[in-house]
Design brief:
14 helices; 23 strands; seven-stranded mixed sheet; alpha/beta
């Protein structure tokens, strides 16, 4: 790789950051070196927050909340509408930055920003719909109702694979609900976070009167995340990452009775039934298993195929896995970009070595160097044919590995599907109504997301996103996920002159 190409990548990144309104001091000085997975080179240096700065930011966020909660919800919605406009105007620029920092395809980088626009539209509309129930009272001349109030400061800890969309799922809802937010992004993707913070500040300036500290960015290591988790000023923490991270975070939050939204590991499966439309299934499997180089929490990792169609489907899958273009995600025709870093590559190879030792047949999985660059880690997605769902199959490896197994009876397919610790996303491909309905029933998929004839990846913002078991149980984005960011009070109003007690209790005094 030439010196010119190194300068070019760094200059391109800095140009994008300038267009997005990020001051140069935020990316050309500091101890945290930022690498692009496209080439592996350093493209920026970012200052990190220390303990004192984090404490100050959390305190400022709490003060901002005390002011922001009194702003009427529809007016808070106007801020989110303006933020959505900033994202819309910045879509190509921010989308390109997402690709450079994560290695996603350009269409995926653009799609992530589109998700941010969509959740802002959703949240702005939601600002006029925070309605509580009116409940019939058993007492005459009494009215009982529910009221929803802002909760407080929301801590957001996000992962590298969706560096900005997950923040927006939480922040758009939290802000419109009347909360303040404190955000710790992944140390691997701080540049997109700086850009989003700059765009928020633009929207806040247009809105006017936004209290200082309403949305705060804290770039740092695990110690900063620990401060967010431990702070009594933060009643809700939304954390996205590994199950191991969740095991560390959850007890800390429970200890102080704080709320948790945990989006943790996924080990997602699809069942391919005899009646499946194989052309449709093949396309869905390809994107779900290989999109984002297998680095989505919703990535398809297990394929459970009926024995009658197994040979046909596997032959077609092998052709796709062998022919798919791995390379620069900014170039037309590329469908698989790089892994985020060397650590991810070694984790993938360790998993494949374990599969190989167990007698599995592996297609793909090798490292490729489409850019002729030894610092980047591009791999061909791996198709692993295995006879049983062993312990290593039940573990999530955050890489493009698809384990394929056979089944003969539908009940056995469901058993295999559910016999993993994780419970995020799932899919079935069938034209048999009974199979589809059973998969969606209480005896079917045990995941938070269950799909019929579409893949496991690519959720829309209108539905609540999240999973069960070791995936954490949290819900973000659409539906009624907003309720987690607010506190509910039950109100009873007596507009009469008597004081009847509930349940017929009598308590008469002279």
């Amino acid at each position: 790789m030439t010196t010119d190409s190194i300068v070019s990548m760094e200059q391109e990144t800095h140009h994008l950051l300038t267009l997005l309104g990020v001051p140069a001091s935020q990316y050309n000085s500091g101890n945290l070196a930022v690498h692009t997975p496209l080439t592996g080179e350093v493209i920026a240096h970012v200052p990190e927050a220390n303990t004192a700065a984090a404490t100050e930011a959390i305190t400022a966020a709490h003060k901002a909340f005390l002011e922001w909660r009194t702003v009427p919800a529809p007016k808070r919605g106007e801020l989110i509408r303006l933020l959505g406009e900033e994202f819309r105007a910045a879509l190509p620029t921010l989308g390109n930055l997402v690709t450079i920092e994560t290695g996603k395809l350009l269409s995926e980088g653009f799609g992530e920003v589109q998700e941010m626009i969509d959740i802002c539209t959703f949240a702005a509309g939601l600002s006029r719909q925070f309605a509580g129930l009116t409940v019939p009272s058993e007492r005459a001349q009494h009215r009982m109702m529910e009221t929803w109030h802002p909760l407080g400061v929301v801590g957001i800890i996000s992962a590298f694979n969706f560096p900005v969309a997950v923040w927006s799922w939480n922040a758009a809802l939290a802000l419109v609900c009347g909360d303040a937010v404190v955000w710790k992004p992944s140390e691997k993707t701080p540049l997109t976070a700086l850009a989003v913070q700059a765009l928020f500040e633009r929207a806040a300036a247009k809105f006017g009167g936004v209290p200082h500290g309403l949305s705060t960015l804290l770039i740092g290591d695990a110690a900063v995340g620990q401060q967010i988790v431990d702070s009594p000023l933060i009643p809700l923490v939304s954390a996205t990452g590994s199950t191991a991270m969740g095991r560390a975070v959850a007890p800390k939050l429970a200890e102080r009775f704080a709320r948790a939204i945990l989006e943790l590991g996924g080990n997602n499966a699809a069942i391919i039934c005899p009646s499946a439309d194989l052309d449709l299934a093949l396309r869905a499997i390809a994107f779900s298993a290989m999109g984002t180089a297998g680095q989505r929490c919703t990535t398809l990792r297990r394929l459970i195929v009926h024995e009658s169609i197994y040979p046909t489907l596997i032959a077609r899958l092998k052709k796709v896995f062998a022919s798919i273009v791995v390379g620069d995600p900014r170039k037309a025709g590329t469908l698989v970009g790089p892994l985020i870093d060397e650590r991810s590559f070694h984790a993938m190879q360790a998993a494949l070595d374990e599969a190989r030792s167990s007698g599995a047949t592996i297609t793909g999985g090798e490292r490729v160097n489409p850019l002729g660059d030894s610092l980047a880690f591009y791999v061909r997605p791996a198709l692993v044919e295995i006879s049983a769902q062993t312990e290593f199959v039940k573990r999530e490896t955050f890489a493009p590995i698809l384990y394929v197994m056979k089944y003969s009876r539908f009940v056995d397919a469901l058993t295999l599907h559910n016999d993993v610790p994780q419970g995020l996303s799932s899919a079935i491909f069938t034209t048999n109504l009974r199979e589809a309905e059973e998969f969606l029933s209480v005896t079917g998929s045990d995941c938070g997301i269950a799909n019929v004839n579409i893949g496991t990846s690519g959720a829309e913002i209108g539905g609540a996103f999240g999973g069960e078991k070791e995936t954490g149980g949290g819900r973000e984005s659409g539906s009624d996920a907003w309720k987690q960011y607010m506190r509910r009070t039950t109100n009873t109003i007596n507009y009469g002159h008597e004081l009847p007690l509930a349940q017929g209790v009598s308590f008469d005094i002279e």
